[in-house]
Amino acid sequence: MERNQAWEIVCEFVQSDSLRKHMLSVEFAMRAYAQHYGEDPDSWGLVGLLHDFDWEIHPTLEQHPMDGAPILRERGLGEEEIRTILSHGPLAEHDRTTLRDKALYAVDELTGLITAVTLVRPSKNIQDVELKSIRKKWRDKTFAAGVNREDTERGAESLNVDLWEFHVPLVLKAMQDHAQELGLSGV
């Protein structure tokens, strides 16, 4: 599947602008991880872009992402990419065994926290976000309370990377590099 086909799927199934931007954030973070590991950024990016495409039509953890898999299969996404998407859910029917599986699990929630940190800044510009700001908000469990910090911690641990020395900076940089596309380039 080509990226433009994946984006068409996103546009067909996702109406929420914030959910689309979340999926783009995960795509960019996955591409950064693929480059770090010497893997295929296009394949990893597709997984990130499509991982939540079915959330609006299957918004329960019992349905998402399992019920979206047949649609992706029918549209031509490869089985390995589908397997990785299936592995990111809390009720995953597939173990997180590959680096790509682990990376998707690790970056998914973190992108939401970084976005929230950006949006509470007066400038609303991700270029102004520093690691210390993310760390401060990370410790405040009432801030972006829906973000599962434990998933991010477990994901970074499964990748054998340090959360604050490597993981968070890599994801932040990936998002900063695409600030305009994410709507995080300021007011």
What does this protein look like?
There is one protein chain. The N and C termini lie far apart (35 Å). The mean pLDDT is 93. Helix content is 60%, strand content 0%. It contains nine helices and no strands. With 187 residues, it is mainly alpha-helical. It has one domain (3-176): Hypothetical protein af1432, CATH 1.10.3210. It is globular and about 45 Å long. Helix 1 packs parallel to helix 3 (41-50) and helix 3 (41-50) crosses helix 5 (79-87). The protein has helices spanning 3-13, 17-37, 41-50, 69-75, 79-87, 99-119, 131-139, 149-158, 163-176.
Radius of gyration: 15 Å
Category from helices, strands and their pairing? mainly alpha
How many distinct folded domains? 1
Number of DSSP strands? 0
* Mean pLDDT rating: 93
Named at the architecture level, the CATH assignment is: Orthogonal Bundle
Q: What is the terminal-to-terminal distance?
A: 35 Å
The gross shape turns out to be globular
- The poorly predicted ranges are none
CATH third-level topology: Hypothetical protein af1432
Q: Helix segment count?
A: 9
Report the β-strand fraction as a percent range: under 5%
